[in-house]
Specification:
By secondary structure, the chain is an alpha+beta fold. The chain is built from nine helices and six strands; from the N terminus they run αββββααββαααααα. Helix content is about 35%, strand content about 15%. The chain has a six-stranded antiparallel β-sheet. The longest helix is centred in the N-terminal third of the chain and has 18 residues, at about 15-30.
Amino acid sequence: MSLSTATPERLPDIETLRRLTKSLAMLDAIVCPEWEYRYYSYNSKWGDNEEMASMRDGCGDDWFLLFDKNGAALKGFAHESSLAKDDSFPKHIQQNVPSLFASFLQEPAFSMNKASFCIWRRYADQKWSVVSPLCGGILPELDGSADLIGIFDGNPESYKNWATDYYEREVPLVSVEAIYAHQPLSEQLIANLNPDIPFSNAYADALEIGYPTAPSK
């Protein structure tokens, strides 16, 4: 079963998800140097004690994930899902996510007026909480979450298979595994993933993402 809002107990904890989303952003930064065509991004300096991960597919689907001192919260929008057409759902999110996540709820860049699913978790919580729709239960086929956050399974093969298909180029699994493990970024690791990208560009992206780099020689 793919990860979705229907299985919050199977989603990674906050710190595991932080590491994973940094890995996804680092991989995309190397495989796809053109920022506007990337799926995944990460800003480790989003705000005061705040970091932000995001996904945009260029076709109207996205998610935004904010990490702060309280925990983490994610809003997703699958534009073809049933809940995407429910104009009351974004307001329902505002009413149900704790006010301590105000920075997340009020962030204009997250397009909070367009949503089909939302999850949040405080550091002390044992699992993620899900904002349920006003009518009916939580079904991944209604909110589109399985398609957008299935990558949170933490399996390097999930990214390799997706990236090979999407970017139409071979992405070596061993290198994806290294990035998932947060092996310090090196010129060799960059070259294995994309021999055409300038090393300085990848290192600049690593600095923004907060991904570790190998000491310069």
